[in-house]
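Good day; I would like, with your permission, to put a structural problem before you. A protein sequence and the structure tokens that stand for its backbone fold form the material at issue. I would ask you to consider whether the tokens describe a fold that such a sequence might reasonably adopt. I set the record out below, with my sincere thanks for your time.
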Amino acid sequence: MSGTITLEEAQSHLKELIDRLAPGEEVVITENERAVAKLVGEGPVERKLGTLKGTVRYMAPDFDAPLDDFKEYMERYAEQLWFFEEDGAVRIETWRKAEDEEAEKSIRIVREKTAERDETGRPTADPLTCRGTDSALLTQLVRCGNYLEESTTIVLYSEGDLPSHDWTAAFKAWLYLDPASYLPVAARLWEGAPFGDEDGAPLELEFSYRYEHEFVDRDSLSTDFFVGTPEPDPAANLVPEVGGMRVYWLGRRFDPGGGLPSVTLMGAGTTKDDQRYGPTYRASIEYEGGTRNYPVIGFQEYSLDTWKQLARPGTGFVPEGTPVQQIVLPDGRADVFRTDDPDYERYRALVYFETTVVMVGDFDEPNSYSSLAAFVAVVKALRPYEDE
């Protein structure tokens, strides 16, 4: 259809006009016998590859170089990721080495959800939306590259907020891909906290990563390479004493009774006496509840000398107000405090032993241990760790 229509008629029948317009057809809208607007039917949108070519104008040659502030950390930490596309298995090997300590290695096997595939065996996904596959790795490394053509660099950029119970931090992330293989070559992550440092300046963190790739024959790997490995022992890094301070825990599994669910040791470790960043805890222990890898209760353990430095008025380490319950223990004492968190019933406890102060707390979200009864049960069950 083509022709002329008055403004009043257009307002009354706009949807019908748009539905009847064929691609390229025009309808002129008039008011007081004068043309004031024109409706033009649009054809199918032509999607053309390569429209973002050249949008990356400049990239510094050292954009992925390690940051000076994190060189020491990066020298002590490395991670290797193996991806077996045929059955969607991912093997992650992590090395961590502290000064004067042997390297620690952990292995995790993750199986990605298998995406739907077409007759050629490729994952099905819309190259313009990067949707249609449950595999985040495949989405990033294979499909999103179709946005660009003949570009020297492919950059996947995302931004948003990382919410927690107490505050929300903004983040920006860049993933740089090789346009020939769509494999990652580097990544950057920036995070900005909604609070400042001691001088009031905004607190910002930035990390950079570099990737190296090597393709190997599946037959060159052991048959159980992607099958899995024994779970790492969460108590492997615990010792009975560190720096003259006794270490306390609840055992590998703690069942408090009284209607409270049991918890299982999730992770634990001790640190050497390192004062580069000021006094800090020497042992850290976490317990998970019904949801795997989700901690519900944790301890930070301090030597008495360190605690005396940290527990000065105004530091925030000692909760303000009067304890809601004081407990006498066979070898110490404890104070349980109710915090002023308005969102849920939240507690903290300070347990004083002969050589150790144990701070007991949750992980910023309500859980099955967010009650006075739970904290009292935990405090009373603390016992020295012994080599098994």
Remarks:
- Helices lie at 7-12, 14-20, 71-75, 136-143, 304-310, 372-381.
- The first strand starts at residue 3 and ends at 6.
- The chain is about 10% helix and 35% strand.
- Residues 3-40 form a domain with the YefM-like fold fold (CATH 3.40.1620).
